[in-house]
Structures are given as C-alpha cells and as structure tokens.
C-alpha cells in the first residue's frame, strides 16, 4: 500500500469558517487529516473567490492519533468549542474516526466528514431568463392593484354596483394580505418552486374568471381568489430573490425587480383607463392570460428545485409532501384568525353608515368578533413561539417585535400603507366624480405621483448601495416629505372644471416620499434580521402595508358615503341618490345647478379623506423616529457580516420563520 493511500492525522487548530483569499498556504490549511510534507497535494486547490465551510474535527481525535496527550482543555471546554462551531455535542465516550484509523484507512472516501457547503449563485442566461419570469409574474400581480383604479367606475356602471366598487379592490387586498406569510410557510414544506408555480397558475386562471363575471358579487368573489394567487407570487419572490445573488449585489438586483412596481404603477391606471374607454373593462383581467402562462413556463424551466425536488420523482414528491406530518406544520389557526379578523374589520368599516347604521347590531357584532379574532391570533402566535412540543410553525414570531428597529419598521410600514394605497385610487375617482373626466383623462391625473415615486426609489437604492447611506435615514426623510405632500393635498380647490397645477405639484412631493420609504423599508428589513427570519419579516412588512391600505380604503369609503348622504339630503330624491350610488354617469342626467352641487359634495368628501390620510402620515413619521440609532445599519456593514452557505435550499428554511431557531436560542 502506498504511503499516499491514507492520510496520517496531525494536530491542528479547531475548525473555523474561513473566507479564503488567493492560494492556500500551510497556516491557512483547514484541519483535515494529512501529512503536511508529503500529502500537501491532497489539499483542494481553491479559487480565490471560493468559500468553504470545512468540517470540524475534535482535537481529541487528532491528539490521540499522534500519540500526544493534551489535557489543557476540559471536556466542558471542548463541548463548548464543538457547539460554537455548529457540530453535535461533544461526547468523550464516542468512538471517533481516529479510533478506527487502524481498521479502515482514513482516506477521503472513508473519513467521516460532513459535506462541504459551497456558496453558489445563479449567473448568465439562466439568471436572466429566471429574472424575466419573476419580473413578468410580479408585474401582472402588481398591475392588478393599480389597473382597476381607473376602471372601477366603468365596472360599477356595467354591473350596477357603485357602492360595492371598493370591494373589487378590497377583496383582492384582503386575500393578498392574508396569504403572504402563509405562502412563505408552505414553501418551506412543499418547496418554493412548487408554490411559485401554483400561485402563478391560480392567479392566471382566476384572472380569466374575473373577466367572465356577470354580477358584482361574482367579480368580488373571483377577485378574492385572484388575490390568493397574487399573494403567492409576491411572497415567493421575497423568498427566492435573496438566494439568487450575493448580498453585496442584492441591492442592485432588488432594484431591478422593484422596477416592476414603478412600471406597473405608471402603466396600470393608463391601461385601465384606455381599456375602459375604448373596449370592454373585461380585458382589464383577461389580458393576464397569455403572459401568465408564459411566466409559468419560464419558472418551471429555469427556477432551481430544492434538494428534495431534485432527488425524487414528481409522484413520490407529491406523496411525501401531502402527509399529515407536513400539514401539521402549517399554522391554520393563526392564518384563519388573521384572515377572519381582517375581513370582519374591513367589512364593518365599509358597511358602517352605508348598508347598515353605525349603531346597528350587525356593525357592533362585527367589530366585536374582529377584536376577538385579533386577540386569538396574537395569543396563539405567542403560545406557538413559547411551546416546543407543538408542531405548528407560527405565522409571525412575536418575539421579533422586541427589537426596537423592527417594531418601528412594522408600525411605519403600516401607517405608510394608509395614504399610499388609498391615494392611488381616490385621485382618479375624484377626477371622474368632481371634474367629469373620462377614464383615460383621470388616469393622467395621478401620473406625477407615479413618475416621481420610482425615481425616488432608484435614488434610494443608489444611496444605500453605492454611497452606504443608512436606510433608516432615508426612511425618516421620506416620511417627512410624504407628510408634507399629503398635507398640502388638503388645500386642493373644491371647485373648478379642470385639475389645478398645484395638485400635480402636491402629487410629485407625495411620490418622492413614497419612493424613499417603501422599498427602503424592505432593504433595511433584509439587513437587520438573520437569514432564518428574512422570509417571514419581508412577508410581514408587505402584509402589514397592504393591510393598512385596505383599512384606509374602507375608512375613506365610509367617510365619503356618509358625507354624500349628509350633503345631498334635500337636494336630490332618494331614487336619484340610488342611481348615483350605482353609476356616477347619472350625475350628467341632473340639471346643471344640481349637478354642480353634487360634484361639490364629492369634492368635500375627498377633502375629508385627505385630512384623515394626513393624520396617518403623521403617525408614520412618529413611528419612523424610533428607527434612529447612533450606529445605524448600512448595506456594506451588513455584507461584511454575511455568512457563507446561502442557497435556494437555505432560503426555503428561512421561509419557515425559524420557529426552531427561536426555540433553540
């Protein structure tokens, strides 16, 4: 047997995860068993950019093989060292590989080494194609949140349901919000690729269903299912994107992905208005069909599967996934209570003062049951976090809110969602109700906001990535600018036959504020939490922003309806009010004097909405103040602390919300 057919163990320092630069020299060698003089050629030839996590070998194994007796370290110290480096607990009685080196030569094929983890990211055409598929998917789901803003009047006129118009938006947002974190959990069970394709298919199919609806009630129900698919698309992008590129490139990559929000925000109202004016509103939903199926094909081909999906066939994989053990991990109680609490709260706010009096038993009981479900959700999630013997993984880890910055981000995002989501809808509606503009003209009324918002988002990405500006500072500046812009919108003239120039200026200011805050919050969230919690925190930030916008839509809708009823009492007959409630085009049937008073009543109601949104913008600024820190987090500072081993599989573990990690710490 050649002397090179086995390795002779030597005593070397314990394992440390090391970033190697240049070619390895002897002092940098990992603690593998080798003859340093004759077996140096067995050491892997490392590329200067490669990163390895070398297996830990207990020092007792090495010293025993060399015939040395090292007694300086106690068993407790060795156990601590092994635990520190991520290995199993130290067992002095365990039979080590060194104990058996006389029985079986300690060679690379026989040594009991852990597999080397290498950090790998996508590149080249596979990355470009997958990015295109992700971009198309996210564009379609985001487009559905803005394209209906200028189509709602046409939809409500066609289906005779002006008072139910906001439910077309609210139904989508409620399920979109309720399933964001649920999808992240399901991805850890069934695989991110499986859940991404499922969400894309569901979104595309129900988009076609929405285009075929014949009643307002049908459309609302189908929109809810469409929102479930859209929620999965967004959630899966948050889970997958961090694993595609290194953290140093993540800011630029997420900027490319985030450009979808800019384009969807700009084109959504324009496309919706153009379709409603020149064709049937049904194409607002039907147009998702062809590109949706294209995105499904791209994701199916280019998205890497998880380890389980790569090593088993489809039939076996499906059989193994849908088991009692895997389903027990899903927090159905938390998901159901969160969704139920949100639906009941929005229903009470939407229906109070319109379909039911505020003091009616229907509204009171709805508020009460919503409050009960919110309490159930919070208590249940805390219990799951504290109990080790429960199989469910919590939807949200309440312990994360103990961090001041993370809690501040949650409240800031929640209150920013109030004006951001609502203003995208009330500005085009106001243009049609107050000035009598058509859908295309009303879509142009919100253009300054839509143009400045992505511009500010791009600027914030450059400042955080290239100039290392702390994201918290940009969030605070953006919150101030947003408050100024929304506050100035209160002064928009109530009368006139065209949109004033000052309104366009106010929208531009608001857009800068929104652009500096919304994407920067996600960037900061990615930096301040661990990899294990990244998926659930990103999903929670988006979820709470959309929830805030949904609640704001309900509040503003109720305020407008109540103001109209009070302002138009005695001016028009009940049947005329009913006609206006079903279709705004009925205003043109009134005589000019009464039509002008009706439009003034609408303008007054929209002014009240801006006043309410100004208050919530102030709360967003107050919450953002708690982000201040003497040593703020920066992109480059966080990248320096990045640990190796990031991959699609590891981020599927991150999507679980790290319930196990929380229980072990």
TrEMBL record:
A single Gene Ontology CC term: plasma membrane
Record-linked Gene3D superfamilies: MFS general substrate transporter like domains (1.20.1250.20), Multidrug resistance protein D (1.20.1720.10)
InterPro entries registered for this protein in UniProt: MFS (IPR011701), MFS_dom (IPR020846), MFS_trans_sf (IPR036259)
Signal peptide bounds: none
Domain spans labelled Major facilitator superfamily (MFS) profile: 130-632
GO MF term (any one): transmembrane transporter activity
Location in or out of the cell: Membrane
Comp. bias regions, Basic and acidic residues: 75-88
Region named Disordered: 63-115
Biased segments, Polar residues type: 63-74
Membrane disposition: Multi-pass membrane protein
Superkingdom of source: Eukaryota
TM spans (from-to): 127-155, 167-184, 196-214, 220-241, 253-275, 281-305, 326-349, 361-380, 406-427, 447-467, 474-496, 508-529, 536-560, 610-628
Alphabetical UniProt keywords: Membrane, Transmembrane, Transmembrane helix
Family annotation (Pfam families): MFS_1
Protein known as: MFS multidrug transporter
């Amino acid at each position: 047997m050649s002397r090179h057919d086995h390795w002779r163990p030597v005593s070397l320092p314990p394992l440390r995860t090391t970033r190697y630069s240049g070619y390895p020299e002897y002092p940098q060698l990992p603690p593998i068993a080798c003859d340093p003089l004759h077996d140096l050629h067995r050491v892997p030839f490392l590329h200067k950019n490669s990163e390895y996590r070398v297996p830990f070998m207990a020092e007792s194994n090495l010293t025993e093989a060399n015939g040395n007796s090292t007694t300086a370290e106690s068993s407790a110290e060795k156990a601590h060292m092994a635990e520190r480096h991520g290995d199993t607990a130290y067992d002095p009685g365990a039979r080590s590989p060194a104990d058996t080196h006389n029985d079986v030569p300690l060679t690379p094929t026989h040594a009991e080494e852990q597999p080397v983890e290498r950090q790998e990211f996508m590149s080249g055409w596979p990355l470009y194609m997958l990015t295109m598929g992700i971009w198309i998917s996210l564009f379609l789901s985001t487009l559905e949140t803005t394209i209906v803003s200028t189509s709602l009047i046409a939809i409500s006129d066609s289906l005779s349901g002006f008072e139910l118009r906001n439910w077309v938006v609210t139904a989508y947002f409620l399920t979109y919000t309720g399933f964001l974190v649920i999808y992240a959990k399901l991805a850890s069970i069934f695989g991110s690729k499986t859940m991404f394709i499922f969400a894309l298919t569901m979104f595309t199919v129900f988009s076609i269903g929405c285009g075929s609806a014949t009643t307002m009630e049908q459309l609302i129900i189908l929109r809810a299912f469409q929102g479930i698919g859209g929620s999965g698309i967004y959630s899966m992008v948050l889970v997958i994107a961090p694993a595609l590129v290194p953290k140093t490139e993540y800011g630029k990559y997420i900027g490319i992905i985030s450009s979808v929000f800019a384009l969807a925000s700009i084109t959504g109202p324009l496309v919706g208005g153009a379709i409603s004016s020149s064709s049937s509103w049904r194409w607002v939903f039907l147009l998702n069909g062809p590109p949706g199926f294209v995105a499904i094909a791209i994701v199916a081909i280019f998205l890497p599967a998880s380890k389980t999906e790569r090593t088993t066939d489809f039939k076996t994989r499906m059989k193994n996934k849908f088991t009692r053990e895997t389903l027990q991990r899903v927090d159905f109680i938390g998901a159901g209570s969160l969704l139920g609490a949100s639906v009941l709260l929005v229903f009470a706010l939407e229906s109070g003062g319109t379909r039911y009096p505020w003091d009616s038993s229907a509204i009171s009981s709805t508020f009460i049951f919503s409050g009960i479900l919110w309490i159930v959700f919070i208590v249940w999630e805390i219990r799951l976090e504290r109990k080790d013997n429960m199989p469910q993984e919590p939807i949200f880890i309440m312990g994360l809110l103990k961090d001041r910055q993370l809690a501040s981000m949650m409240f800031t995002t929640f209150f920013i969602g109030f004006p951001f989501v609502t203003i995208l809808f009330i500005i085009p509606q106001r243009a049609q109700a107050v000035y009598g503009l058509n859908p295309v003209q009303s879509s142009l009324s919100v253009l300054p906001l839509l143009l400045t918002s992505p511009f500010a988002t791009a600027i914030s990405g450059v400042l955080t990535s290239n100039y290392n500006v702390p994201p918290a500072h940009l969030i605070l500046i953006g919150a101030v600018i947003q408050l100024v812009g929304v506050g100035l919108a209160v002064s928009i003239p109530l009368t006139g036959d065209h949109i004033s120039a000052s309104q366009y200026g106010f929208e531009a200011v608001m857009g800068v504020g929104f652009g500096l805050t919304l994407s920067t919050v996600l960037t900061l969230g990615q930096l301040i939490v661990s990899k294990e919690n990244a998926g659930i925190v990103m999903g929670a930030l988006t979820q709470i922003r959309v929830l805030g916008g949904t609640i704001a839509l309900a509040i503003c809708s109720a305020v407008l309806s109540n103001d109209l009823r009070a302002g138009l009492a005695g001016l028009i007959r009940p049947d005329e009010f009913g006609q206006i409630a079903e279709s705004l085009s009925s205003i043109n049937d009134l005589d000019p004097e009464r039509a002008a008073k009706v439009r003034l009543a609408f303008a007054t109601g929209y002014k009240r909405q801006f006043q309410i949104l100004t208050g919530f913008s102030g709360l967003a600024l107050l919450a953002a103040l708690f982000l201040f820190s003497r040593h703020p987090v920066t992109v480059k500072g966080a990248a320096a602390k990045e640990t190796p081993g990031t991959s699609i599989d590891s981020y599927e573990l991150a999507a679980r919300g790290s319930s196990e990690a929380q229980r072990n710490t």
